[in-house]
Amino acid sequence: MDYSKSGAPKGPKNKPRHKEHNQKGSNKNPFGGKSDKSALLDRMKAAAQAKDDKST
């Protein structure tokens, strides 16, 4: 008996089970889109200043 032929067939390999909501190339995350680090830096500076003002 050929045991390799028994059972359910195996599914396709190397494929995602579902699409991610923020996958590359989608509307939310387009190709070539770079994040603006200056906005992040401004938020971090404001948070540090607020923490410093609160502690003194």
SS-based structural class? mainly alpha
Number of strands: 0
Helix content: 25-40%
Average of the residue pLDDT scores: 82
Shape descriptor: elongated
Written as H for each helix and E for each strand, in order along the chain, the element string is H
Percentage of β-strand residues: under 5%
Major sheet characteristics: none
Describe this structure in words.
- The model has no long low-confidence stretch (mean pLDDT 82).
- The chain is elongated.
- The chain has 56 residues and is mainly α.
- The protein has one helix at 37-55.
- The protein is 34% helix and 0% strand.
- The termini are far apart.
Blueprint of the fold:
Elements: H1 37-55
Summarize the structure.
With 56 residues, this protein is mostly helical. Helices cover 34% and strands 0% of the residues. The mean pLDDT is 82.
